[in-house]
Amino acid sequence: MKYRSRAEIIATLLKAGVRGASKTKLMYSAMLSYEQLQAYLKFTQEKGLIVQDGELPRYTTTAKGMRFLERYAKIGHLLTPVEKAVELKAPVKPTSPKPSPAAEAQ
């Protein structure tokens, strides 16, 4: 599995919480351990990106969280072509310099 940034993990949590989600759904959607989920939920709640709804332990993405998702998507669209171009390039093999004709004549 590739390394994911904090922003990518938060975006995944917020996407899962758009319609409301339990801790279990959030945990499986973001592929986090329970301890990791607890830390990310605390952070996103403190920043006002996600809220816990009523008595049921359901979490819903806030308007601020939706703005985060929109901006995250825009940044992703800007970076994607660069990442694809870098990934598509084949590794360059170093070549040794060819001797000049004058050097070969000697």
Task: Explain how this protein is built.
The chain has 106 residues and is mainly alpha-helical. It has one domain (6-80): Winged helix-like DNA-binding domain superfamily/Winged helix DNA-binding domain (Arc Repressor Mutant, subunit A, Orthogonal Bundle), CATH 1.10.10. Helices cover 59% and strands 9% of the residues. It is built from five helices and three strands. A three-stranded antiparallel β-sheet has the order 1-3-2. Helix 1 packs across helix 2 (23-30) and helix 1 (6-16) packs across helix 4 (63-88). The model has no long low-confidence stretch (mean pLDDT 82).
**Strand coverage percent:** 5-15%
Alpha-beta content class: mainly alpha
Spatial arrangement of strands, main beta sheet:
1-3-2
Number of domains: 1
* Low-pLDDT sequence parts: none
- Rg calc: 24 Å
> What characteristic shape results from the CA principal axes?
elongated
State the distance separating the first and last CA atoms: 57 Å
- Biggest sheet, in brief? 3 strands, antiparallel
Give the helix tally: 5
What kind of oligomer do you see? single chain
| Text of the CATH class | Mainly Alpha
Give the full name of the CATH homologous superfamily. Answer: Winged helix-like DNA-binding domain superfamily/Winged helix DNA-binding domain
Task: Name some characteristics of this structure.
106 residues, Arc Repressor Mutant, subunit A, 59% helix, three-stranded antiparallel β-sheet, mainly alpha, elongated, single chain, 3 strands
